[in-house]
Write a structure and sequence with these properties.
Layout (H helix, E strand, L loop, with lengths): L6 E7 L9 H8 L7 H12 L6 H18 L8 E6 L6 H10 L4 E6 L6 H7 L1 H9 L5 E4 L7 H12 L7 E7 L9 H18 L4 E6 L13 H10 L4 E5 L8 H4 L1 H12 L3 E4 L7 H16 L2
Parallel strand pairs: 1-2, 1-3, 3-4, 5-6, 5-7, 7-8
Helix pairs in contact: 3-12, 7-8
């Protein structure tokens, strides 16, 4: 067992603004300190307006941290371990959090990205920048990735339960994940995790009418992962289905890629085809997801 007094856990996520006034600063973070193009400002304002400029993801992530801390307090070997949220594009940033931990004598940091699927982009976005910062500043800190959310049986059970609440006989079930600006060959693990979990969940539901697709493609780049959900929608319509149920298993919790990209934009397109749209509830910070994350954290200490 490692020295837990010198160990901390970071729940790493993308980040989101906390008010309308935060949008300009948030977008400059997303665009690496540059002023964002006008179309990005307008598009972001439009999206955030539907949630009164406060994404529910912020509170969900805080709830996850709080619930995990409570569980850790009940374990002798974990009760003195700090657990915090840090973000790629908001405050506190990942590197700022690392700096503060280093100043306070933390020697090992376990990073748990709040993304169910594994992939190269997750590493490049949330682990690689931290390691580069540690190396550049000669910090005496070891970093460790905690991953494997989608490999847990409980992950499939959560989604199976949530999907079963909205799925009807004769529906088409569409499993989704965020598209990535990468050639297919660079994200084989990400694609495999989506396909394998979709197959397993549909199989446990006894449902054969399902597919997988990528959503929320950005405006730049050519090599985004395919097939896109709109391409699949055309196929579903041509096949005569009358209702489509989306299950965004590539996400853990509600944010605008779900509430806007799926529930508004995609839903409008579905309905324009004369079809019905429904979505399975996200895990968010329900007790089963908290227990899943806790089991991964606990396992990372017992194997150290």
């Amino acid at each position: 067992m490692e020295n837990i007094n010198k160990t901390a856990i970071i729940l790493a996520s993308y980040g989101s603004p906390e008010s309308k006034d935060d949008l300009p600063e948030y977008l400059r973070e997303v665009f690496n300190g540059r002023d964002p193009p006008e179309f990005a400002v307008l598009d972001t304002q439009k999206k955030y307006a539907i949630v009164n400029y406060i994404s529910p993801s912020g509170q969900i992530i805080r709830n996850l941290r709080d619930e995990l801390e409570k569980m850790m307090m009940t374990e002798t070997e974990l009760k003195d371990v700090q657990i915090v949220n840090a973000f790629k594009h908001w405050k506190p940033s990942l590197v700022e959090t690392i700096r503060i931990f280093a100043e306070n004598g933390v020697e090992r940091i376990k990073i748990l990205p709040l993304f169910p699927l594994r992939g190269r982009s997750i590493y490049e976005s949330y682990i690689q920048p931290v390691n580069e910062y540690v190396s550049k500043n000669n910090l005496i800190i070891q970093t460790e990735l905690i991953s494997g959310i989608c490999l847990q049986k409980s992950f499939k059970n959560i989604w199976k339960t949530n999907i079963s609440r909205v799925l009807r006989e004769g529906d088409y079930l569409l499993f989704t994940a965020h598209s990535l600006p990468k050639p297919k060959g660079e994200e084989e693990l990400y694609i495999k995790d989506l396909e394998n979990n979709s197959r397993d969940i549909a199989g446990e539901l006894g449902f054969k009418n399902y597919g997988t697709g990528f959503q929320s493609r950005g405006p730049y780049g050519k090599n985004w992962l395919e097939p896109g959900i709109y391409d699949i929608l055309d196929q579903v319509k041509d096949a005569g289905y009358r209702r489509i149920v989306s299950a965004p298993i590539g996400f853990m919790y509600d944010h605008l890629e779900i509430l806007y990209d799926l529930d508004i934009l995609f839903a409008e397109k579905v309905r324009s085809y004369g079809m019905e749209y429904a979505r399975a509830e996200s895990p968010n910070n329900n007790e089963h997801m908290v227990k899943l994350l806790f089991s991964l954290i606990h396992e990372s200490f017992t194997k150290s």
